[in-house]
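Tokens for Alkylated DNA repair dioxygenase AlkB. Go.
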Amino acid sequence: MDNGILTYYPAFLHPSDCAHYIGKLKDEISWKQESIRIFGKSYLTPRLTAWYGDAGAVYSYSGLKLSPEPWSPALVQLRDMIIAVTGSRFNSVLLNWYRDGNDSMGWHADDEKELGVNPVIASLSLGQERDFRFRRKDNHRDTFNVKLANGSLLVMGGEIQHFWQHALHRSARHLSERINLTFRLIRPV
Ligand SMILES: O=C(O)CCC(=O)C(=O)O
Ligand SMILES: [Fe+2]
């Protein structure tokens, strides 16, 4: 694509492993519904989140300062499989649990300075397939859509975070739950 690299592995995990990891992650992870401040007003995020990783991989995200919890057993397994396939290093993971079609994530780019200039971000999707939308920062009408299937891995790289934003919109259709994990490499700033 223009100004970015996307690599999609449609069946990174087998469906039976997906069900296994959804159960483990719901159990092992300490999920929170954070509040974020937008123009001085505070809102609950429309999803549950968690931040895990190596000690010291502190991350600012949507006005939140997140200190990681130590890696859980399921996260260590998933991290090591993803490092083996991508050949990239990751020291942290942001988890999002979309409970149903009402849960969502707004337009943003993962362009925080602790991620470095052209970060590699590996996004593992478990559960309900959802549309992952992209739009160009300089032309919001230039859009495209990637369906993130159960067990898929999407790796974002190159200049993509400079030129494109992404979002996961809510849906009027009845949708079941989905857990997404974005593995990242945080550098000291
Ligand atoms: O849920 C997803 O697929 C996307 C998550 C995302 O964009 C993020 O965590 O920054
Ligand atoms: Fe993102």
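Residues 4 and 160 are 4 Å apart (CA to CA).
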